[in-house]
Design brief:
This protein has 129 residues and is mainly alpha-helical. It has one domain: Four Helix Bundle (Hemerythrin (Met), subunit A). The longest helix has 30 residues.
């Protein structure tokens, strides 16, 4: 149905996430990190939306949506690395036709990217004080 679009969104998300990680490690440019992270989050959200359409009503009643956040790191760099691995796995699952597993991985990556964005925003606010 939307498989090509899902794969493209996941690829773009990975590319933007790599850009964010490079900006963080090379020159610690907070604006470049933030912009690339936002773009990665946007593409991930789109992929999750498309994947949810492939799941129909069963997308609402899955247990992993409620348990995935407790297993995640709270440090910024490890959050980005974890999100990258989750997105890679999601893309592999989608490419192999395992959309339900791809959805799970993309959903978890989405949550990780949201936490990373929140962490970056808290850091920015603390620096202004």
């Amino acid at each position: 149905m939307h498989r090509d679009e899902i794969e493209a969104a996941l690829s773009k998300a990975l590319s933007h996430l790599e850009d964010s990680m490079k900006a963080l490690s090379t020159n610690n440019d907070e604006k470049a990190v933030s912009d690339a992270l936002w773009s990665a989050s946007s593409e991930t959200e789109y992929a999750v939306f498309l994947l949810s359409l492939t799941q129909g009503n069963k997308a609402e009643n899955v247990s992993w949506k409620h348990s995935s956040s407790s297993k995640q790191s709270t440090e910024f760099k490890p959050m980005l690395a974890s999100a990258r691995e989750l997105l890679k796995t999601a893309k592999e699952k989608v490419e192999s036709g395992r959309l339900e597993k791809g959805y799970e991985e993309a959903w978890t990556a989405r949550n990780m990217l949201l936490k990373a964005t929140d962490s970056l925003e808290k850091k920015r606010k603390e620096a202004k004080k």
